[in-house]
Specification:
The protein is mainly α. It is built from ten helices and no strands. Helix 4 runs parallel beside helix 7, helix 5 packs antiparallel against helix 9 and helix 8 packs antiparallel against helix 9. The protein is elongated.
Length: 204
């Protein structure tokens, strides 16, 4: 059960993890930020792993709400994907590069939740975007929607590969925008290309 106090704790922890990473942040740090004792925190969560897991769950729930809002309010699939890209670009700016790496390495239960979000909700959302875009005539009619949606998700994963794109050399936001542009230009129809070129998200 999420009480008001627990929700505040999870929100605070999520913001701290985004800003500072997970491994470097102690429960003492969280307690100081909350202005409460560790004893009180441990009455709300079992341990740090549980805090990471529950704060990530709450964060992803909010993300799904935002995505559903975008998916339900866009003019067409190109507009929808660009709005999603813009939303995620702003989210990325809030994340330290080590946050997800820390979760991947040290918190398997939390990572399973994140992976399920990506390979279930996210994959289905991109698949729906592609199928709708084909029906709207803004994406090419001969696309295999299932394959393209999986290629898209796999491609996003590659963007975080530190051997290919080390954080010291690349700004993730720039890589991501290039990837979205690459993806869209590979699947749009002539009609879709005209709509795509009306957007200015890729011009800066």
């Amino acid at each position: 059960m999420r009480t008001e106090q627990k929700i505040k704790l999870l929100h605070t922890a999520a913001e701290l993890f985004k800003k500072h990473g997970v491994k470097a942040l102690s429960m003492d740090d969280v307690a100081r930020a909350m202005g409460m004792s560790k004893k009180t925190i441990y009455a709300l969560v079992y341990d740090k792993a549980d805090l990471v897991k529950q704060s990530l769950e709450l964060y992803l729930e909010a993300e799904r709400v935002q995505m559903e809002s975008i998916l339900g309010s866009s003019e067409n699939s190109i507009d929808e994907l660009i709005k999603l890209a813009d939303y995620f670009s702003n989210q990325v700016l809030d994340f330290t590069s080590s946050a997800l790496v820390d979760i991947h390495k040290h918190y398997p239960d939390a990572w399973d939740i994140y992976s399920d979000h990506r390979y279930n909700f996210m994959l289905k959302s991109i698949l729906r975007n592609i199928e709708n875009g084909v029906k709207q005539g803004v994406y090419r009619a001969n696309l295999n929607s299932e394959i393209i949606s999986k290629i898209y998700i796999a491609g996003v994963d590659i963007l975080g590969n530190q051997r290919l794109f080390p954080a010291k050399e690349y700004v993730f936001l720039h890589i991501y925008k290039e990837y979205i542009n690459y993806h869209l230009r590979g699947i749009v129809s002539e009609k879709g290309l005209r709509l795509l070129e009306q957007h200015n998200i890729f011009k800066n």
